[in-house]
Amino acid sequence: MHVAITGASVGIGEALARAFAAKGAVVSLVARRKERLDAIARELSGRAFLHQADLSRPECATDWIAPAEKELGPIDVLVNNAGVQNVEPTELAGVDAGEMLLRLNVLTPLRLTRAVLPGMLARRSGAIVDIASMAAITPMPGMYYYNASKGALANASEGLRGELRGTGVHVVTVYPGPVDTDMGRKGYEKYEPSLTARLSPVGTADGLARLVVRAVERKKARVVYPRSYGVALWFPRIARWVTSRFSPPIKRLSA
Description:
Largest sheet: 7 strands, parallel
Number of strands: 7
CATH topology: Rossmann fold
Order of helices and strands: EHEHEHEHEHEHHHEHH
Strand order of the largest sheet: 3-2-1-4-5-6-7
Number of domains: 1
Strand content: 5-15%
Distance between the termini: 50 Å
Number of helices: 10
């Protein structure tokens, strides 16, 4: 099984690379930090194709697919994981940085999916895994661009699943809540201390990766992690009210 993972050099992407490789998959790992990709590949038991790329440039996002498939065979599983998170008061948010976020978090995964899907459909097998966020269901204050990006990706992913029913290609939409990664920790530093933040369940990248691998194996539609956040999928209006009412306030500095 050939699994391609974007944003594979740190955090959730790194954990996914290790989890799929542990199951015997060959992996294509794409990220900006080549030295981190090299270090991860040395620790994996199977074969790996590595590609350094700035995926915030969608026009270059698919350059690695042909050489990866030449080396490891057709991509069986595409994991759209690469993404960034900006946490700041909306009136102070950088427009250029926000639009870069939208390109990386939305346009690049859509372009990658469009690139690999014809081959999967021809083979009548394959999986698309989209790492969305609970922010798609319960948008957080101070994440104006991030909320928009993850809402867009989640909706594209959910819609594609229905479209592909009966084709042999399935789609897994992943909704991580708080996960203990560098990106997650840096994000929470932007909020004022609060009891809500201290009491919120926080998962691990390895724990999420195991659930994603299982979802691919069992052709599950969604992964919510930590699992206690699953209630938000069933009662989104209530969950959004709770998030809006009890989220810690964003730290505001003068512009």
